[in-house]
Automatic annotation (TrEMBL):
GO terms for biological process: methylation. It comes from the Bacteria. This is O-methyltransferase. Keywords: Methyltransferase, S-adenosyl-L-methionine, Transferase. The keyword Ribonucleoprotein does not apply. GO terms for molecular function: O-methyltransferase activity; protein dimerization activity. Residues 154-318 form the O-methyltransferase C-terminal domain. SUPFAM superfamilies: S-adenosyl-L-methionine-dependent methyltransferases. InterPro entries: COMT-like, COMT_C, COMT_dimerisation, SAM-dependent_MTases_sf, WH-like_DNA-bd_sf. The lineage of its organism: Bacteria, Pseudomonadati, Thermodesulfobacteriota, Desulfarculia, Desulfarculales. CDD domains: AdoMet_MTases.
């Protein structure tokens, strides 16, 4: 091949992919050492080193790297949090995402460690980060899930529910796989009288009850612990909401959707926000790539193809199903609304 041979394709996206973890690593390093709580006011690298006793060269490199990645601002040699860092990376704030990002990073990358060895049927290397090999520990993640709900997901989801024409007529809703319950709490708060039930693994019950109490909603919101495949979901609901929670039904989606159908009142609404994969299960990549490690590391979950949930809803007997794709913080997801 001549050195002057024109190249039509560009390797840019390959370089970008290899550079991307640098940004993640420096953000995670900053979270782990509690950097961001010291940067609410502008401070020099030297002053930070004096204050915290950190290694000067590594401190300066980290600060400059974070400024390069727009996580910090740098002006006249002083570093301070960007608006984003201030809102999401300063511990103690209700929107603090540090622990959630660390957990999420472990979930999305840990299970990929040793992939070449696994493909070759070799023994995977023993590292600290072997990732998920069993079921996700949702109770350990509950606080982070609550913060991440407050940090944009409630704000994104609420208009979807408020936009349902029946919303004002709802008397009782179920948040299926509702985690620590922040979404259900927000939906109930937005309604004058609707009551809510958060259904999830009993392990997240204590945290959910605490949030319900903190929001003064113990008379309107309850937590029901159980496994949605084997336990009763209760009954008499006008709305069943499920976001990112149906993935754990294995091959039994039809059974779960039928169970929801039976738990709903006549005219009730089943609203589901889930990934809807297209292009033979390869797109949208924002939905596919973060789930690879989880799928490799554990056989607990499945992904849904676009239309799969809508089809299951029709087969369960719902009289109509409307579907659309909505943009979320995590990428495009499908919003399927079925009416009984
Ligand atoms: C990704 S989180 C989503 C939480 C919440 N719906 C949201 O959108 O923030 C998935 C939730 O499903 C719950 N879950 C998974 N399998 C379940 C099961 N078999 N029965 C009840 N809840 C389950 C988990 O405990 C977790 O809280």
């Amino acid at each position: 091949m001549s050195i002057l041979e024109p190249i039509e394709e560009s390797p840019r996206s390959l370089y970008q992919a290899v550079y991307a973890p640098v940004k993640a690593e420096i953000i995670l390093a900053g979270i782990k050492v509690g950097l961001f709580s010291h940067l609410q006011e502008p401070i020099s690298a030297a002053a930070l080193v004096d204050k915290l006793g950190w290694e000067p060269r590594a401190t300066e490199i980290l600060l400059n790297g974070l400024a390069s990645a727009d996580i910090l601002l740098k002006q006249n040699g002083l570093f301070s949090n960007s608006l984003e860092a201030s809102r999401f990376l300063v511990p103690g704030r209700p929107t603090y995402l540090g622990d959630h990002l660390l957990n999420t990073h472990r979930m999305v990358t840990g299970g990929l460690v040793g992939l070449p060895e696994r493909l070759r049927n070799d023994t995977p290397p023993q590292t600290q980060q072997t990732g998920q090999s069993g079921p996700t520990d949702w109770s350990a993640m509950a606080e982070g899930m609550a913060n991440s709900a407050r940090a944009g997901r409630v704000q994104m989801v609420l208009p979807l529910v408020l936009g349902l024409p029946e919303f004002t007529t709802f008397r009782k809703m179920l948040d299926l796989g509702g985690g620590p319950g922040l979404l259900c709490i927000a939906m109930v708060q937005a309604h004058p009288s609707m009551r809510g039930v958060v259904f999830d693994n009993p392990a997240v019950g204590d945290q959910a009850r605490q949030y319900i109490q903190e929001h003064g909603l113990t008379d309107r919101v309850t937590f029901l612990g159980g496994d949605y495949m084997s336990d009763s979901l209760g009954s008499g609901y006008d709305l069943v909401w499920a976001s990112a929670s149906l993935n754990y039904c294995g091959e039994r989606l039809d059974e779960l959707v039928a169970k929801v159908y039976n738990a709903l009142e006549h005219g009730g609404v089943f609203a589901v926000l889930q990934e809807g994969l297209t292009h033979e299960g390869t797109k949208p990549s924002e939905m596919v790539l973060p789930m690879l490690a989880w799928r490799l590391g554990s056989d607990e979950g499945i992904n849904f193809a676009q239309g799969q949930i809508a089809q299951a809803m029709l087969e369960a007997g719902f009289r109509s199903v409307r579907s659309r794709t909505v943009q979320t913080l995590h990428g495009p997801m499908d919003f399927d609304v079925a009416r009984k």
